[in-house]
Specification:
30% helix; 7 strands; 6 helices; 2 domains; Nuclear Transport Factor 2, Chain: A; four-stranded antiparallel β-sheet
Length: 174
């Protein structure tokens, strides 16, 4: 059984060995009653949350009832991974004005492609008065476009973040 400090150091070491910088993350390991809580805060918008979840998922240990699948109390280790507050918004700040223009003109942009990076396109559709959907369509090896799940947009900030990811990471998804 590792102490919280040892677990913190081991996670940081694992992230470093995977090629990430210590400046990209803040790691916090704390006791929460009879449980342990691991919080990973991503400080670099270019780091994909899904990659960190795949890398560190083995740290999470949750005991469940076999019949009801309820979480059993005591001895669990919970893993929470999220971006540091404001990191994505700061990175996407330059795209806010463009995003506001797109959302203010549904007749011009709804149901249309708004971005293309050669391999993928991003299409936006107005869902209702306050919500939009953004989907990423990937051109498969066969030349047929493959649809990916929908990304919900509720503000210009949401659209700006998704477009920043598409431009800099190649996908709208974290």
């Amino acid at each position: 059984m590792m102490t919280n400090k040892e677990m913190n150091q081991a996670i940081k070491k694992e992230l470093k060995e995977a090629g990430y910088s210590a400046k990209d993350f803040r790691v916090s390991v704390k006791d929460a009653g009879y449980e342990t809580s691991i919080h990973i805060y991503i400080k670099n918008a270019a780091v994909r949350k899904s990659e960190i979840e795949k890398l560190l998922r083995h740290w999470e240990e949750i005991d469940r009832d076999q019949r009801t699948y309820e979480i059993l109390a005591g001895g669990n280790t919970f893993l929470f991974i999220d971006y540091e507050y404001g990191v994505l918004e700061d990175a996407a700040a330059d795209l806010i004005q463009i995003s506001e223009k797109v959302l203010a003109n549904p007749e011009k942009y709804s149901g249309r492609k708004i971005a293309d990076n050669g391999k993928k396109t991003a299409h936006i559709t107005q869902y209702d008065k306050y919500s939009w959907t953004l989907c990423e369509v990937e051109k498969g090896a066969s030349g047929i476009y493959e649809y990916r799940p929908t990304y919900w947009i509720r503000s210009a900030k949401d659209l700006a973040v998704a477009m920043w990811r598409f431009k800099n990471i190649g996908t709208i998804y974290a």
